[in-house]
Amino acid sequence: MAFYEPLGDGGFGSTPATAGPWSPEFQHAGPVSALFGRAFERHDPAPGTRVARVTVELLGPVPVAPLHVATRVVRPGKRVALLEAELAHEGRTVARATAWRVAAAPAGLETIEDGPVPELPETGPPPFAGWEAMNLDGYLSAMEWRFVRGTFGKPGPGEVWARARGPLVAGEEDTPLVRALVLADSASGVGSEIDFSRWLVINTDLTVALHRDPVGEWLFMSARLQSAPGGCALAESRLADSAGTVGQGLQTLLVAPH
Questions:
Q1: What is the pTM assigned to this prediction?
Q2: Which end of the chain is flanked by fewer CB atoms within 10 Å, N or C?
Q3: CA-based diameter of the chain, in Å?
Q4: HSE value, Cβ hemisphere, 13 Å, CA-based, for 28
């Protein structure tokens, strides 16, 4: 199942695959972020440039319902441009996003890597053991997960390979940026060191910066979480493909008692 059905003129019908772990009525921010990424790539495209950074601000729960995306250029430029988009439901803005589109680096630039990536395992441990109380029928099941370290129900830093079982938008092939954004918002679940049975943990935003485009369907995520009483929580992630790191993600998290 695709995450969205195209309705035309910037409209999209949300399928049950978008539903997040907290409720079947509200979306996981992975598909939402990827929908923004798709909009940025398609808006007034400039040859020789790429979307290098996307920041999504979640203004509230995004319903599993028809949505509309509107995009504009805030700061035009041939080498650097800033784009902005809004996601609305029934005329109410539920999320905003910005993106930097930059000129692709020249071929002579040195390639710098930061270490090897674990190989994609043929199988992995059950990903949802301990998460039976969550909604597993939406986004979590729409993705295929192969954990290298940890699981969703096991507190602690985690490492996982993952891919979407269907496209973001029905009838389309996902771009590398879209594939990265579909996964990136899962860092707080993959690397959480907080007991979700005791605490409600919801991110207010997501920032993803990619120094190169990922290759292939499967993407690797290494994630960890930091938190402190009187503060909040932060989830950091490394995103990679089989050749190495492609970028990083960051989430700011609200932590509150259930």
A1: 0.96
A2: C
A3: 53
A4: 32
